[in-house]
UniProtKB/TrEMBL annotation:
Mn(2+) 2 binds at residue 66. Binds 1 Ca(2+) ion per subunit. Binds 2 manganese ions per subunit. This is Mn-containing catalase. It comes from Terribacillus halophilus. Mn(2+) 1 binds at residues 35, 69, 149, 182. GO terms for molecular function: metal ion binding. The keyword Translocase does not apply.
């Protein structure tokens, strides 16, 4: 159960309206790595968590905080749209909303949202549930969460540099600080899980079933050998099970692909070099008669 507290987690008060910046701010609200994404990602991970205790509790703690961040951004965007803007720059656009649209404002803020925030990114693309990850494997999910917080903090920092409004910067500085904590939080949770489960996901798969001869070999598939000096090609593997090897000229290990032609009703084109084996009515690769 959730309940709403009318007071925001932190201030969301711009010094002046700026509808063009409101459009930019939509990215960290409804973009791939925006607050709606992490809110939904953590909520579903928490709701789906089958391990009662600290991990489920932590997930729902941070998920609920992210709801507060969505509210802060939506409030800020709505205030940035106030007046939209207050002065006329062109005789042909005396309506301040029309002027703002011509100046780079997201027209849907006015037409669809009524000067309110929307669940879209900065290009107007609607938020998509495919952005979120909730696999049921906590280690895999926590690594995705670390990536989400890393990308989100990067974008908020870029937006901080794109405005001089002290009120907007004040709110963004709070969100940046919370992203610092959240990155540290996921790194700590990952370390905690790795101490008992190991570093490879999933830890429950029998490793003897994989092709172990290539489990720890870095393969060079590009010109140059600069990658040879990397930690990923030298020393002990991070799961402690082997030593990294480097293959500077990997050779193909599979067969030359050969596909039977499709049925006549599909009206495909059979390759000219293939022929029907007499008496058996099937296709064969050249040279295999």
């Amino acid at each position: 159960m959730f309940y709403h507290v009318k007071q925001l987690q932190y201030n969301a008060k711009p010094t002046r309206p700026d509808p063009v910046y409101a459009k930019k701010l939509q990215e960290v609200l409804g973009g791939q790595f925006g607050e709606i994404s992490v809110m939904m990602q953590y909520l579903f991970q928490g709701w789906n968590c089958r391990a009662e205790g600290k991990y489920r509790d932590m997930l729902l703690d941070i998920a609920t905080e992210e709801i507060a961040h969505v509210e802060m951004l939506a409030t800020m965007i709505a205030q940035l749209l106030d007046g939209a803007p207050a002065h006329d720059q062109d005789e042909a656009a005396k309506d301040p909303v029309v002027e703002a649209v011509l100046g780079g404002m997201n027209p849907q803020h006015a037409i669809v949202g009524g000067l309110g925030a929307r669940a879209d990114d900065s290009s107007g693309y609607p938020w998509n549930a495919r952005y979120i990850i909730s696999s049921g494997n906590l280690l895999a999910d926590f690594r995705a969460n670390l990536n989400a917080e890393s990308q989100g903090r990067l974008q908020v920092c870029r937006l901080y540099e794109m405005t001089t409004d002290p009120g907007v910067r004040d709110m963004l500085s709070f969100l940046i600080a919370r992203d610092t904590m959240h990155q540290n939080q996921w790194m700590a949770a990952i370390e905690d899980l790795e101490s008992t489960q190991g570093s490879i996901v999933p830890s429950t798969f029998n490793q003897e079933a994989e092709k172990q001869e290539v489990s720890y070999t870095f393969m060079n598939f590009s010109e140059g050998e600069e990658s040879k000096s990397g930690r990923w090609a030298n020393g002990s593997s991070f799961d402690g099970q082997a030593t990294f090897e480097y293959d500077g000229a990997p050779k193909p290990m599979g067969q030359i692909p050969f596909l039977q032609p499709g049925p006549p009703y599909l009206h495909g084109t059979a390759p000219e070099e293939m022929r029907i084996q007499q008496g058996k009515g099937k296709m064969e690769p050249p040279g295999q008669s």
